[in-house]
Amino acid sequence: MPQDFLISESVRAESEGHLTGLVSVADGVLDAARQRKVFEFLSEPGWQFGWKSDPKADPYAFWNKHFAGSIHPDHLLKDGNGRQYDCAEELQRNAPLVHEMWQHLRQTALSGHMLMRCYANGHTFGSDGSVHTDSLVEHSFTSVYYPHQKWEPNWGGETILFNKEKSDIVASIYPRPNRLVTFRGTVPHVARGVARVCPVMRITLMFKTERRQD
Ligand SMILES: [Fe+2]
What CATH number has the domain bearing residue 182? Predict the structure, then answer.
């Protein structure tokens, strides 16, 4: 089960109503065999190059694998209503192994959530993301799973969360193998680039969800 992420009281105060108690980190999400299977599945061919955190602003792209859901999230539309739909069945058809993982998550860390989109990103050195939000609505959540078997501190690739004003970092999440971090889609965040010494593609698996009742 997820635990409240440790955020200092001053940050909690500054971010009141925005982050408080809503960033959670769960470690040891899958058993070792399932974790390996998910990582091997994500490592297979099928990556598409050209994905961007902000298609209009970002000069550099990264790799992506889309599994299920709409690729037109709500923040791309003026009224904040995207084309989301429950995509669990679509995920079952397109990626049964990931769907099996989703079934596990919806009974544990993401209890009460509905799946809107599922995809993976791949970052190699030089393919940095940029600070962005995933959603305009408070009931939208982003969960990032780190499937790697191994990660080194010098490899970089942290997920960084910012306050609403983007004037300070409120959390930095280390890509610890078999970790899931969940935060509201309205929180500005970025996948920091991997360092030159990182010998692998940083793979993350995203579950975009909605939870109507808090
Ligand atoms: Fe994002």
Answer: 2.60.120.620
Is-contact 180 145, C-beta < 8 A?
yes
Tokens standing for 94? 């397109």
User: pLDDT tens across 179-201, in order?
Assistant: 999 999 999 999 999 999 999 99
Task: Enumerate the H helices of 54-134 as residue ranges.
Answer: 88-94, 96-106
Query: How many structural domains is the chain composed of?
Result: 1
Distance 133 CA to ligand 1 centre (A): 6
Report the alpha-carbon distance of residue 209 to residue 119 in Å, rounded. Answer: 12
How remote is the CA of residue 166 from the centroid of ligand 1, in Å?
15
- Checking if the pLDDT of 119 tops 80, the result is yes
CA torsion, points 25, 176, 31, 43, in degrees to nearest 10?
120
Cα separation, 134 vs 25, whole angstroms: 18
78-99: pLDDT as tens digits = 666 667 889 999 999 999 999 9
- What distance in angstroms lies between residue 192's CA and the mean position of ligand 1's atoms? 11
- Cα 30 to ligand 1 centroid, rounded to whole Å: 22
Q: Which residue range is the domain that position 56 belongs to?
A: 3-210
Distance 53 CA to ligand 1 centre (A): 7
| CA 142 to centroid of ligand 1, rounded, Å | 7
